[in-house]
């Protein structure tokens, strides 16, 4: 009978990918916040509906989640020695 040592599923590469995905997510959320008006009666549509908030930030957030899911599902390659 073979004695196999059980290992934890995450390798150092998984943690690196997970942190990269988390950093991309945080960057996306940071790009989405802001734009508070000094005057509550003023409405600045160009700031609220900027391409940074409507297009770039959500794309970064989705990309970050994809990288995180990939980091969780990635398995270590087993060599056949």
What ranges have pLDDT less than 50 throughout 5 or more consecutive residues? none
**How would you sum up the global shape?**
rod-shaped
Tell me how many strands there are: 0
Oligomer: single chain
What portion of residues belong to β-strands?
A: under 5%
Radius of gyration: 21 Å
Main sheet characteristics: none
Q: Helix/strand-derived class?
A: mainly alpha
Helical segment count: 3
Helix content: 55-70%
The averaged pLDDT comes out at 85
- Give the SSE string: HHH
Report, as a whole number of angstroms, the end-to-end distance. Answer: 18 Å
What does this structure look like?
This protein is mainly alpha-helical and 81 residues long. The protein contains 3 helices and no strands. The protein is 59% helix and 0% strand. The chain has helices at 12-32, 45-48, 51-73. The model has no long low-confidence stretch (mean pLDDT 85). It has a domain at 12-33 and 45-73.
Please describe the topology of this protein.
Elements: H1 12-32, H2 45-48, H3 51-73
Helix pairs in contact: 1-3
